[in-house]
């Protein structure tokens, strides 16, 4: 009787070859770079974005040189919120200020993927009025009034007037009336009363609200209640009259 052939035992070399065959090949470097770029694009477009404060229009709340992280999950924009917005078409001279020509279109297309518009002009201000609000400055006591209610503005420097420029405006639906906390040095909605749109910023142009200051280190921390005003938010809505 012929003996059955025995199955050879796996040798160390055979096991090593099998292990090598089963090991996944590492992804190319370009794939890692592409994934990183996609992650950056998603974060910048839909989650958070970093901004630098170049002027003193929001002193004392925000100082020149502050760097803040803006959340894009803020939801409804409320009266009293500090927001960053694209003011190209309202404060920045209009769409003609955006890049044009072949290079401009290419740059805008690439930048758009990452949430960057080379011609975009971003601003940071406080929302003083929303659609339907009637805002007047100033009343007999020298205070700002919203829908007939005089308001205290604790975010202003002590002794600062709510506005050296008198105004009486009604905010259209879908628009915002913006003012800087440093009223004597802020080119805000008041400075554009004579422009098309009357200085009112479309709600759709709001990018988000600052939630964290990461520079300078001495001012590191969350924005907290300073980025909002419960007193302004609690004023009853206006009816556009």
UniProtKB/TrEMBL annotation:
<dbReference type="InterPro" id="IPR019533">
    <property type="entry name" value="Peptidase_S26"/>
</dbReference>
<dbReference type="InterPro" id="IPR019758">
    <property type="entry name" value="Pept_S26A_signal_pept_1_CS"/>
</dbReference>
<keyword id="KW-1133">Transmembrane helix</keyword>
<keyword id="KW-0472">Membrane</keyword>
<dbReference type="Pfam" id="PF10502">
    <property type="entry name" value="Peptidase_S26"/>
</dbReference>
<comment type="similarity">
    <text>Belongs to the peptidase S26 family.</text>
</comment>
<feature type="compositionally biased region" description="Low complexity">
    <location>
        <begin position="1"/>
        <end position="11"/>
    </location>
</feature>
<dbReference type="InterPro" id="IPR019756">
    <property type="entry name" value="Pept_S26A_signal_pept_1_Ser-AS"/>
</dbReference>
<dbReference type="InterPro" id="IPR000223">
    <property type="entry name" value="Pept_S26A_signal_pept_1"/>
</dbReference>
<protein>
    <recommendedName>
        <fullName>Signal peptidase I</fullName>
        <ecNumber>3.4.21.89</ecNumber>
    </recommendedName>
</protein>
<feature type="domain" description="Peptidase S26">
    <location>
        <begin position="31"/>
        <end position="215"/>
    </location>
</feature>
<keyword id="KW-0812">Transmembrane</keyword>
<keyword id="KW-0645">Protease</keyword>
<dbReference type="InterPro" id="IPR036286">
    <property type="entry name" value="LexA/Signal_pep-like_sf"/>
</dbReference>
<keyword id="KW-0378">Hydrolase</keyword>
<feature type="region of interest" description="Disordered">
    <location>
        <begin position="1"/>
        <end position="21"/>
    </location>
</feature>
<feature type="transmembrane region" description="Helical">
    <location>
        <begin position="27"/>
        <end position="47"/>
    </location>
</feature>
